[in-house]
């Protein structure tokens, strides 16, 4: 069993510019692939492109 708070949550968003899935790092909602702004709200669904 892992200790409490051992891991950190990972926040993902789909980039509206290039459609890549990107990880939001340190509350910086910018796509690392193309530089577009990432939405604050969840936008990845089960039926989205993989």
Question: What descriptors fit this protein?
Answer:
elongated, 16% strand, mainly beta, 2 strands, 50 residues, two-stranded antiparallel ribbon
Q: If you had to describe this structure to a student in words, what would you say it looks like?
A:
- With 50 residues, the protein is mainly β.
- The protein contains no helices and 2 strands.
- 10% of the residues are buried.
- The model has no long low-confidence stretch (mean pLDDT 87).
Write the layout of secondary structure elements.
Blueprint: E1 11-14, E2 21-24
Antiparallel strand pairs: 1-2
Inertia-based shape: elongated
| Portion in beta strands | 15-25%
H-E order: EE
- On the 0-100 scale, what is the average pLDDT? 87
Rg on CA atoms, Å = 13 Å
Strand order of the largest sheet: 1-2
* Alpha carbon gap, first and last residue: 31 Å
Instruction: Give the number of DSSP strands.
Output: 2
Q: Helix amount, in percent?
A: under 10%
**Alpha-beta classification:** mainly beta
Short description:
The chain is mainly beta and 50 residues long.
């Amino acid at each position: 069993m892992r200790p409490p708070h051992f891991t950190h949550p990972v926040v993902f968003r789909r980039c509206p510019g290039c459609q890549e899935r990107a990880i939001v790092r340190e509350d910086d909602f910018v796509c690392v692939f193309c530089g577009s702004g990432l939405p604050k709200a969840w936008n990845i669904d089960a039926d989205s492109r993989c």
